[in-house]
Each structure stands twice: as structure tokens, then as C-alpha cells.
Design goal:
- The radius of gyration is 15 Å and the shape is globular.
- By secondary structure, it is mainly alpha-helical.
- It has five helices and six strands; from the N terminus they run ββααααββββα.
- Helix 1 runs antiparallel to helix 2, helix 1 runs parallel beside helix 3 and helix 4 crosses helix 5.
- The termini are far apart.
- Helices cover 48% and strands 11% of the residues.
Amino acid sequence: MAENGLVAHGYTGKSDLQGEIGWGRGTGWMMFAVGSVLGYCPEDDVAEKCAEFVDGTMSYLLDTDNFSWSLGKKEGPTDTSATGPIMWGITKAKLNRDGDKLPNVSIEKIISVALACLRDEKDGVVYGASGECLDWNVYNDRFGHYKWGQGGVLAFIALLRNALNK
């Protein structure tokens, strides 16, 4: 992780960061794991580190209740392939630990982000995902419907919906 707490696109060696620092989709992939760790990990020190990562990530949420394709670039386009997985992990952690480890994330905010994701949905298809990265630190500006955006958003919405319907 970079000094600012953001995930890099990749790493060589133990600490040599490669590619975009704060890459949203990569943060989402990391958050898939964090959500599960926070949900089931009995070790308080590990849970505390995970909660710090969640709080740090949430500080990059845009006013539109989406994440940018690169978290540190608030002026950049929003990205469903970042927002969906990030929020799945945060929602999973919030629901499984009864929120005790995530006091700074409310269910109301999670619902607001879900509604923002649905603004990019039409006829069951989620748009607004960033396109393929072409290499280390080589990104394109194509946004549309891609499976990596569709899956993360639908997993997040389904998890939240199931929790709210209990």
C-alpha cells in the first residue's frame, strides 16, 4: 500500500509500487477480502487495520456517492467497477460484525451508494465501468458495460437487498 493508504495497480517485490496509486478497481478487489476478514476475523489488531482501510477508502467517496476510477482523482469519471466491489466488501463487513468495527459507515450511506450505482443501470445492465487497462499504468478512457463492473455492482446490490429484506 502507498503511504497515503491507497492500493496500487500492482507491486514488484515487497514495496515497489507499480501503476496507478489508488486504482479504484484494484481497491475493490482488495475490499472483497477485507469485507470477509472484518466479518469473521476474531483478531482485533487485524480487524482494526481492515477498519482503517475501510475508513480511508470511504474518505474518497465522491459527492455523487460513487468512487472515481482512481480514488485520488476526484475530478475523474466515476467507475462502477470500483464502486461495486468496494461497497460489497464494506457492506459485508458492516452486516457480519453488526457494524461494531465500522462506526463511521452507516447503512444509510451504503443505501445511498447503492442508489447511485443504479443510476448507471438500464434493463438489468450496469454501465459506467472503466475499460480494460492495457498494461502497467496504461489506462484507457473507455467506460461502458463490462463484466467486471456488472458483477461487482450486482453482488453489492444483492447483498444489501437480502440484508434489508430479512
